């Protein structure tokens, strides 16, 4: 036995299993397992990446001013209270590192995003999982789950993998009811998909205990470049900037994200196509006897009779070249999460689920 051991909590972290991207022996595979934008990144972002190759020998900006100002302008937020990270995952990591640790608790919900538990454990904190109400965030259960040890509460709104969301009045009630030493983190990875929803930005401005996180990985189609951001009270952003590495984002990533956030026409097109195809997909699945909750994100959580049926359907879809996501790890073993793809992909997945329900195996 070696005397060299990691900090408590680290070995409780299960290694992350990502969405699959290929199936042995099957061609023409469609990946609907990671909530990626089926239309890819904006052409303007692609151009920015090409231009950036001439500057690869330069260290990138350390204050991210260009990107923060673009975010400020396009989202109507104060650029001085924005922090950029290597995906919003890194902002979640900063929050846990800076505000939680041994002897403290981090609260999230039973079908909440995997990074909350991982980052809490990595910081040495105790993860606390509270119930949802029929796959919807339950504010009362969260409040009941908080103690004088709670430092952070994470909710994704819309949530992944349920696709459901709660209203701003409920979120405000949550922020209002939290213990005074506790910060509420609103994960807005899918906020752009909800027309007219600011992800909680206004709430951040009116309170001193709310932080919002956002990402370029979903609607902006830049998951491969790893860019996210956080918006919070000035003193919280100052704290997070102290744990942030000075060159955490590459110049290429910064340039692409800045171009993407300014390409409002592309954003609008992706949002409206997603809404149209998501509605179509949910209705087609329902006609095949596969219900789902009303989704406000870029995926649908398809519910099956039980775990066995969900897994059999997943295997059948794989054999047909369709990769969706099992969500047993999110306490939803009877469900499959299906990303809203382009129209041919949506038709293909609905058609094959229909065949599966009609008896194909
Ligand atoms: C995809 C996702 C993220 C974002 O991850 P990035 O690190 O920004 O790629 C954050 N939260 C939720 C709930 C997500 O589904």
TrEMBL record:
GO annotation, biological process: L-histidine biosynthetic process
Residues forming coiled coils: none
Catalytic activity: L-histidinol phosphate + 2-oxoglutarate = 3-(imidazol-4-yl)-2-oxopropyl phosphate + L-glutamate
Record's keyword terms, sorted: Amino-acid biosynthesis, Aminotransferase, Histidine biosynthesis, Pyridoxal phosphate, Transferase
Named cofactor requirement(s): pyridoxal 5'-phosphate
Domain of life: Bacteria
EC number: 2.6.1.9
EC top class, as a word: transferase
GO MF assignments: histidinol-phosphate transaminase activity; pyridoxal phosphate binding
Domain Aminotransferase class I/classII large: 28-353
Pathway(s) per entry: Amino-acid biosynthesis; L-histidine biosynthesis; L-histidine from 5-phospho-alpha-D-ribose 1-diphosphate: step 7/9
Modified residues (N6-(pyridoxal phosphate)lysine): 218
Similarity comment: family membership: Belongs to the class-II pyridoxal-phosphate-dependent aminotransferase family. Histidinol-phosphate aminotransferase subfamily.
Subunit structure and binding partners: Homodimer.
Protein's recorded name: Histidinol-phosphate aminotransferase
Gene label: hisC_1
């Amino acid at each position: 036995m070696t005397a060299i051991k990691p900090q408590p909590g680290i070995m409780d972290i299960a290694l992350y299993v990502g969405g699959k991207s290929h199936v042995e022996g099957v061609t023409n595979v469609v990946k609907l397992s990671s909530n990626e934008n089926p239309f890819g990144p904006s052409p303007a972002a692609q151009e920015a990446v090409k231009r950036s190759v001439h500057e690869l020998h330069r260290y990138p900006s350390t204050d991210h001013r260009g990107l923060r100002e673009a975010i400020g302008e396009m989202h109507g937020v104060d650029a001085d209270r924005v922090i950029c990270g290597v995906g919003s995952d890194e902002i979640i990591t900063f929050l846990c590192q800076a505000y939680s640790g041994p002897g403290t608790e981090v609260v999230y919900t039973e079908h909440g995003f995997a990074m909350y538990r991982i980052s809490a454990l990595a910081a040495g904190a105790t993860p606390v999982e509270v119930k949802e109400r029929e796959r919807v965030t339950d504010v009362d259960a969260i409040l009941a789950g908080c103690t004088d040890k709670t430092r952070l509460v994470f909710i994704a709104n819309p949530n992944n993998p349920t696709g459901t969301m709660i209203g701003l009045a409920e979120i405000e009630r949550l922020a209002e009811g939290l213990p005074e030493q506790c910060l509420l983190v609103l994960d807005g990875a899918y906020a752009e998909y909800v027309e007219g929803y600011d992800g909680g930005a206004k709430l951040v401005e009116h309170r001193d205990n709310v932080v919002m996180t956002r990402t370029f990985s979903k609607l902006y189609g830049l998951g491969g470049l790893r860019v996210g951001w956080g918006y919070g009270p000035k003193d919280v952003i100052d704290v997070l900037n102290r744990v942030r590495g000075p060159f955490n984002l590459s110049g290429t990533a910064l340039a692409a994200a800045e171009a993407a956030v300014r390409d409002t026409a592309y954003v609008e097109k992706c949002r409206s196509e997603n809404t149209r195809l998501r509605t179509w997909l949910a209705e087609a699945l329902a006609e095949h006897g596969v219900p789902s909750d009303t989704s406000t994100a870029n995926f649908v959580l398809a519910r099956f009779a039980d775990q066995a049926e969900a897994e059999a359907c997943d295997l059948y879809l794989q054999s047909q070249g369709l990769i969706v996501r099992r969500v047993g790890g999110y306490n939803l073993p009877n469900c499959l999460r299906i990303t809203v793809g382009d129209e041919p992909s949506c038709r293909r997945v609905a058609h094959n689920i229909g065949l599966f329900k009609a008896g194909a195996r």
